[in-house]
């Protein structure tokens, strides 16, 4: 059996895509993946990466649309040519954007089955990112395009029940056409410390207390709250460090402005002079190196501004923190509270820098609190884990 995937991201950093591909490789299935170019080679001999030659950049709305269209053209030509040599049984396409599903039109005509994996709902993301009302022409067009894409696919996967409800509420699709496969970390990569009681966060380096944010660096993910809290935190926890690992090397204007804010000191000095010594930006990392960084982390940060998109997301990074027995400070969203109460995650009450400061200090002072959050949050994996989710994927593919 041969399967191909199409994804507009870097394979080494895309946890959802890698879990699927490596699960298929375990079944001795040949997996070819068209993805963004990077210096990475899978260790599995039956996974082969085909690189799209152009880099991805965040230059704004029109640039994003242009990038998506060019990748759609490239992926359509790629699949149309390679299909006749490989004869894939399944074409597994990942959004964003969902209209990449049409790159599989020729293989579909010749009998290949098309799976569309909806990592995120694009209209909600667009509204959140560009502060656009739901009744705008662009959002209506995105919903229409989403509907066409969902109908074209033979089967649809998505990352949580909230997303499934969104898709069913606005499109005439049978509920059993959409399967939820949760973003559970692969324990082969994210293998936690052995301690059953939860790690004692400062044992790796008693001279440092490390906060970690990883993922997309955009305003909607509320990093300003954490950065603004740092001056007060530095005074109270002199050995604190805040590590930020972006998803892309070129994250866009917000990312650039945030770095300038941190790195540039005002003429008269002040706290910003020292701030750059306490906040470190790393380059984007493959999952293996992310796991290494997590082993040196004391508290995970998962923030979000209130919005139509952020209310429904269930970040994979949150689960990676929990899998590695790291207590989490998070903004309270509808999706998170469905699975985790305040005994499992330290929720911010008002999403302010004062709230964030209090949360960090509370966790820094109390090993007992850190252990309690860790132990309680780990209960999630009793019901939801990659072994269970992987079986769902196998069943859909009938393997």
UniProtKB/TrEMBL annotation:
It comes from the Bacteria. It holds the Pfam family Glyco_transf_4. Coiled coil: none annotated. Keywords: Membrane, Transferase, Transmembrane, Transmembrane helix. The chain crosses the membrane at residues 65-85. One of its GO terms (biological process) is lipopolysaccharide biosynthetic process. GO terms for molecular function: glycosyltransferase activity. Signal peptide: none annotated. SUPFAM superfamilies: UDP-Glycosyltransferase/glycogen phosphorylase. Residues 199-377 form the Glycosyl transferase family domain. Residues 17-186 form the Glycosyltransferase subfamily 4-like N-terminal domain. This is Glycosyltransferase subfamily 4-like N-terminal domain-containing protein. It comes from Candidatus Gottesmanbacteria bacterium RIFCSPLOWO2_01_FULL_39_12b. The lineage of its organism: Bacteria, Candidatus Gottesmaniibacteriota.
